[in-house]
Amino acid sequence: MYNNSITMVPNVGDEAPDFQLPDIDMKMQKLSDYRGKEVILAFFPAAESPVCTKEMCALRDSFDELKKSDAQVLGASVDGPFANKIFTENHHLNFPVLSDYKREVINKYGIVMENLGPLEGYKAAKRSIFIVDRNGKVQYKWISDNPLIEPDYQEVKGALSKLKEINNTQK
Q1: Structurally, how many domains does the chain consist of?
Q2: Which of 24, 40, 46, 52 is catalytic?
Q3: Are 66 and 164 in contact (CB under 8 A)?
């Protein structure tokens, strides 16, 4: 059941709220399964919409570069696993796309967009990027109240590079 209580957005330095969501093959995936890697958690409002497609394809095209940083991209939307599967296949996405169909995770992260365009009452994810470090802490966050705005990809890569530098000096 949809939970109306929205929590606060996690801040940099906070523990990233763990979750368990189905991927496009309905295999359950947890954020904590990726401990030991940096995770780029990309929430998007709607599969197959123009801006979401552009964003997910930009992440796809950066995947090799991001993987060199030992980072894992995870996409997440409120679309069902079936819609996300078609979206993933249509655009050859090379990272897991998760389905928050119960809208629990967008509530946990405090990123509920109350209305999607003219669809009053349709709750979707605000376009958001969280970089979660290998210990499960939020190291970067970007959230847009406007679903037509894409993240600054260079800023995301810069935050990831900075995190890699920190990790290398701690070894």
Answers
A1: 1
A2: 52
A3: no
Is residue 142 included in any domain, yes or no?
Answer: yes
The model scores a pTM over 0.85: yes
State whether the Cα torsion 49-52-54-60 is positive or negative: negative
15 is a domain residue: no
Measured between alpha carbons, how far is 42 from 75 in angstroms, rounded to an integer?
A: 5
In a domain, 134, yes or no: yes
**Would you say 89 and 111 are in contact if contact means Cβ atoms under 8 Å apart?**
no
Residue 144 included in any domain: yes
Task: Give yes or no: 57 in active site.
Answer: no
Note whether 63 and 41 are within 8 A (CB).
Answer: no
The continuous run of DSSP H or E covering 169 comes out as helix 153-169
pLDDT, tens digit (0-9, with 9 covering 90-100), for 107-160: 999 999 998 888 898 999 999 999 999 999 999 999 999 999 999 999 999 999
| 39: CATH | 3.40.30.10
Q: What is the pLDDT of residues 59-113, one digit of tens each?
A: 999 877 777 777 899 999 999 999 999 999 999 999 999 999 999 999 999 999 9
